[in-house]
Specification:
single chain, alpha/beta, Rossmann fold, seven-stranded parallel sheet, 10 helices, 7 strands, about 15% strand, globular
């Protein structure tokens, strides 16, 4: 128990961590828990509220917390962010690629602009973040990267083609990159959580609370805790909660007589 509490802890203010999508939800929890472990933080989000969240965390934990409002769903976003942080002299021991966009919509009715944004953010920006900051870590011989994949990669459900495929790339990329980094002192981890009680899915607060209490959804704090633990232990891929691991084969091979009613039921939420 003591080991789990202390894993990843550093002397307060002695190391920096970068977290994307840090204004709310899971990203906000990653920031909070890294601050609890003593890390200074560089928080990036498209939402301007990230500035206030950074100030709150800084005051609460007595660490340095820098905020940057930036759209990471652009072709050169990772290059611009890396150039800026490098020019400002920041050196990151931890990088959390958390920023994401959820989409529940049939491909043929999905706006083409949304397709580009999701692929840019989930795949291109994440890959370039790993490439650029991973190279910096390799030169120092240490560093940890955590990428957000999703349990939906095992769920070929109607309406999730784009989202699931973009997250499947994250898992595959992370696994292969982790093998390339073997014995370098740098590790990379992908976490594949199922439903999380955040605003990402458009669920009301009452439904989020019900989901957590019933065990259908995981709280952002629990997800972040498990992701950080896996990252600091150097695991390649982690699926939170053992029962979700057991269900993976069933999700992959759901028959049509189950998928068709499910599709009809969920059509009203497609947007």
């Amino acid at each position: 128990m003591c080991l789990n509490r202390k894993i990843g802890v550093v002397e307060r203010g002695s190391a920096w961590a970068l977290v994307t999508g840090a204004a709310l939800g899971i990203g906000r929890e990653y920031a909070e828990q890294l601050a609890e472990k003593g890390y200074n933080l560089y928080l990036v989000d498209i939402l301007e509220s990230v500035v206030q969240e950074a100030a709150t965390i800084e005051q609460k934990h007595g660490i340095k917390c820098v905020a940057m409002c930036m759209n990471l769903a652009e072709v050169d976003a990772a290059k611009r962010l890396h150039a800026k942080t490098t020019a400002e002299g920041y050196v990151f021991d931890v990088v959390i690629n958390n920023a994401g966009i959820f989409s529940h919509c049939d491909i043929l009715t999905t706006p083409t602009e949304r397709i580009e944004r999701i692929i840019f953010l989930h795949d291109l920006t994440l890959t370039m973040m790993c490439r650029l900051y991973g190279e910096d870590m390799l030169k120092r011989g240490k560093g940890r990267i955590l990428n957000m994949s999703s349990y939906s990669i095992w769920m070929p459900f109607p309406g999730l083609a784009l989202y699931s495929a973009s997250k499947a790339y994250v898992k595959s990329f992370t696994e292969a990159f982790a093998k390339e980094l073997y014995k370098t002192g740098v590790s990379i981890t992908a976490i594949c959580p199922a439903g999380i009680a955040t605003d990402l899915y458009g669920l009301s607060k009452s439904l989020q609370r019900f989901g957590v209490k019933s065990g259908i959804l995981m709280s952002p704090r629990s997800c972040a805790k498990r992701g950080l633990r896996a990252m600091f232990k150097g695991r390649k891929v982690v699926v939170p909660d053992w029962w979700y691991k057991i269900l993976i084969p069933f999700c992959k091979y759901l028959p049509g007589f189950i998928l068709r009613p499910l599709r009809n039921f969920t059509m009203k939420w497609q947007k």
